[in-house]
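Suppose a classmate hands you a notebook page containing two proteins, each written out with its sequence and a corresponding row of structure tokens. How would you begin to make sense of it? This section walks through that situation. The first entry is reproduced here exactly as it would appear on such a page.
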Amino acid sequence: MKEFLKVNSNDSFVLHALALEYIKIGDDVNARALFESILNHDPAYVGSYYHLAKLLERTGETDKAIKVYQKGMEEAKKAGENHVYNELRSAYEELIL
């Protein structure tokens, strides 16, 4: 994966996949950094909002998770990504209720 990343260092898909691998091994710090990097340079990469918000929930940063869900819903709606929007909305509502 890291070899592929050297060639495609700004590829959101590759970065997202690496962030998910970090989560699998319990490295929330690097996963968070990658998700935030993705969303800073590619806010339309809507798949990362859900995973970043879930990570923030898990680490007790509820207010930040809520903001990430809200931003993700906004971006998903703009992109016409209804499935992603609904997934984000469901997780958001579960968190705030």
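The notebook's second entry, a different protein, reads as follows.
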Amino acid sequence: MSNSSPDLMRAIRGPILLITLGLLFVADYFGSFPFYKSWPVLLIVFGALKLAERVFAHDPDVPAGGSV
């Protein structure tokens, strides 16, 4: 069942990014943070999700360098 973690991370990537985008628009609407200053949060969230996907997809048979 070790394959389910990367699949789960891929499955929730879109919804998490949409929720983050919605929160940024709400923050912009209520005047807390303008969207033009807060959009890099989307890149940070996307990068964190990709990093988590790689960590959960770690195959112990593959050396740290990534080559077989």
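A careful reader of the second entry would note: Residues 17 and 46 are 7 Å apart (CA to CA).
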